[in-house]
Amino acid sequence: MSQNNSLGLYLFKIKSPLTITDIFSLMHAMFHRSRRLFRLSPALGRQIARLSSGAAKDDLDPSTYELLGNVSLICGCITLTAAVSSYLLDKKEEANKRTEAEENERIRRALEAPGLTRERLIKITPALIEKACVDKTILCQNFVARPKLRAAIQEALSTKNPVNYYFIYGPRGAGKTEIVAQTAAEVGNKYVVWHKVSSPCSEEELASNLFKTITGETANMTDIDLRKAIINFREQHDGECPTIIFDIERGAGDSYTLSHIKGLAKFLVNFCQSIIVLPEASDIERLRGDHAREEFVYVDEMAISEAKEYMTKAGANYQEKELDYIFNNIGTSPAVLRDLINTVGVKKEKTLEQFVNTILQNARNDLDKFPVKPILKALQTHPEGVSLDHFNGQPFEILSPHAVFSALRRAVAGTVEKPQIIVVFRPELYKYQLLSTAHKTALKTFKFQEGA
Asked: Of 8, 53, 282, 314, whose Cβ has the fewest other Cβ atoms within 10 Å?
């Protein structure tokens, strides 16, 4: 079989009779030429459909002529389909280019417009604090300064050249949001963006929502676009470093969203400060690992002096002996004390002893449901906390932080009686700790079943 080229058409000179090998060679050659041609030009590609064998009908035996006719039909259909597909792809590409150009222009206008000015960048105010916090009354009237915590958060807010991002974590109801908001409000000329994450989101949604929080402008953003916006702001304000506080609501902190937030904070290091307020203490185990950039601030229960001040501000008139009974047995968490004041003092639904006993009974139930009993046994002996070194010689694949909290998540997902998260691994201390004084009290007399 021979081939020549004439006026852009590939003419195949066919010798009769054709063999099956010749037919398949012809199909391959025509298809190969078709693909090359319509890539160069859809118009030229469509000419391939007019390919002919260049042989007279009389030179071919009937079977060859029939086969060649089928081959021509097949190749024509393939070429026509390819030409149409190429045309549609060209149109789609043109439309995409127009859309991309329009979107780039929108982002350019948003970046260059007065969106990132001193007036429009969100600054923490008392009104915003009230909006951000769960209990406005507690924050405004009963808020207690916690000097050690405030100093750690002020350090996170004060830097002009950030090289780290901060995780604020701790047990539920410890006052994480309140202490961060109050401290941010006290920082002089610092520009603070309070960004509430109330539902799971993708990377693009996170960047776009944050850009809208900062500027009030709606645009489809990427992390690169967001970084450009922050760079522009710093150039406009003599290098002033803004801080972004990610306040993650409970229920919004799935693994993917937490990972996106950490990734964005990591990406923005050196350009702005990021503070991530985690809804659950155990969320820290999903995120830690970037030792060069991570910093941790653990929000624990209040100190005794702080708890007494809290009770006084709340108007709870208890004698010193009663306060000692409360603090020593169920602790000083703001949420627990608020519940006590409401249940015992306001509604008078329970006596003080009944309230404390209920808390302790719930704590004993939590201990019973906790799936990794060797850690509880160690904490019973060392209530201040146990390091991983304590478990040398025991199976690490069971007692490592990742294994423990994976087991806990499986237990939560697989049972009706959901175990509570009562233990946290604190990476800055490299040890396990119980999350509340009530659990420490209950653990003192807790009886483990044989084999646990």
From this structure: 8
At residue 328, the pLDDT reads 97
Domain 126-298 has CATH 1.10.1760: no
What is the C-alpha separation between 192 and 130, in angstroms, rounded?
A: 15
Two structure tokens written together for 92: 């789609």
The first and second tokens of residue 317, run together, are 């008139």
Non-local (6+) Cβ contacts of 433 within 8 A are 379, 384, 385, 423, 424, 426
User: Which CA distances in Å does 385 have to 72, 149, 447?
Assistant: 81, 20, 19
pLDDT digits (tens, 9 = 90+) for 308-328: 999 999 889 899 999 999 999
For the chain, the C-alpha Rg in angstroms (whole number) is 35
Residue 357 has, within 13 A of its CA and on its CB side, a CA count of 5
**DSSP, residue by residue, 162-192:** ---EEEEE-STTS-HHHHHHHHHHHSSS--E
Cβ neighbors of 153 (< 8 A, separation 6 or more) are 166, 168, 179, 180, 183, 184, 275, 297
Instruction: Identify the CA nearest to 192 among candidates 253, 148, 245, 254.
Output: 245
- The one-letter code for the residue type at 216 is G
Q: Please report the sign of the dihedral spanned by the C-alpha atoms of residue 348, residue 354, residue 360, residue 363.
A: negative
Yes or no: say if 297 and 168 are a contact pair by the CB < 8 Å rule.
yes
For the chain, which residues make up each domain, given as ranges?
Answer: 2-88, 126-298, 350-444
In degrees and rounded to multiples of 5, residue 367 shows phi and psi of -65, -40
Segments of the chain scoring below 70 in pLDDT:
1-141, 188-190, 411-419, 451-452
Q: What is the DSSP string of 14-30?
A: -PSSPPHHHHHHHHHHH
The DSSP code for 49 is G
Question: Would you state the structure tokens that stand for residue 124, as one six-digit string?
Answer: 């923490």
CB atoms within 10 A of CB 54: 15
Return the structure tokens found at 387.
């390091």
3-class SS of residue 276: strand
C-alpha 452: how far from chain center: 36
Task: Please report, as a single letter, which amino acid is at residue 374.
Answer: P
Residue given tokens 């799971």 in the structure block: 200
pLDDT digits 0-9 by tens, 184-211: 877 754 678 888 899 999 988 998 888 8
